[in-house]
Design brief:
The chain is of the alpha+beta class. The chain has one domain: Lambda Exonuclease, Chain A, CATH 3.90.320. The chain is 44% helix and 27% strand. The strands form two sheets. The chain has a five-stranded mixed sheet with strand order 4-5-6-7-8, sandwiched between helices. Strands 1-2-3 form a three-stranded antiparallel sheet.
């Protein structure tokens, strides 16, 4: 796929610490990542119940395995966009191919892959893909899952897309009002969820509430 260099996307320094992932933006304090804010403000009741059900060690094993598969899948998708060969496990390549076939085929223009974005003084993060999806500018993220998702289960994904769109609009004067989640399941099925218009604005407002709640709880030092 060809990248249309519509905007100058610059890398940010990223660091991990006891309070989660941070991004260094200019000379200011490190900004919490979008995923850190969502994780800190998440209701963990069902996750704790699952850990108790399967056992702490097994839960950690599953978490690490899922993280490794997801990272490898993302690398293969980025390589595809850059014209590089795939690598890693057969599963990660298969998952990437599912998204390439069913998801990226609808992408008319790629503006950037693994784009680092920030909202001044508030948060930062990396979105998987920015470009034009089915004729409309959009923020796009790839996900992998053991089983198919229901829309009501993945509101965090939609808030994540809303956060990146707000940051992109702030940084580059765009008006992106569409988010696309592309999911490949372990049995090679594809799911796609699109939020746009008033629904997208709704999730952006939900994200803004999360940011406010995060800073009310943790202040600007964590």
């Amino acid at each position: 796929m060809l990248i249309t260099k519509k905007f100058e996307y610059k890398p940010l320094e990223r660091c991990e610490g006891p309070h989660g992932r941070r991004y260094i933006v200019g000379e200011g304090r490190p900004l919490p990542s979008v995923t850190t804010i969502l994780g800190k403000m998440k209701d963990l009741t069902h996750i704790k119940a699952w850990q108790e059900r399967v056992g702490v060690q097994e839960a950690e094993r599953i978490k690490v395995e899922a993280g490794n598969i997801g990272h490898s899948m993302h690398t293969n998708l980025e390589n595809h966009i850059l014209g590089l060969p795939m690598k890693g496990t057969l599963l990660s390549q298969t998952l990437a191919k599912v998204i390439i076939k069913h998801g990226l085929g609808k992408v008319d223009e790629v503006w950037g892959s693994e784009v680092m974005l920030y909202s001044t003084g508030l948060y930062a993060g990396t979105t998987d893909l920015v470009g034009v999806h089915d004729g409309t500018p959009a923020i796009m993220d790839y996900k992998n899952s053991i089983k198919e998702k229901k829309k009501e289960w993945i509101e965090d994904y939609f808030m994540q897309l809303g956060a990146y769109a707000l940051a992109h609009n702030e940084m580059f004067g765009t008006d992106i009002q569409k988010g696309v989640v592309m999911i490949a399941t372990r049995d090679a099925h594809y799911q796609e969820f699109i939020v746009e218009g008033d629904e997208f604005i709704h999730y952006q407002k939900m994200w803004a509430d999360k940011v406010c709640a995060y800073y009310e709880k943790y202040g600007f030092d964590k």
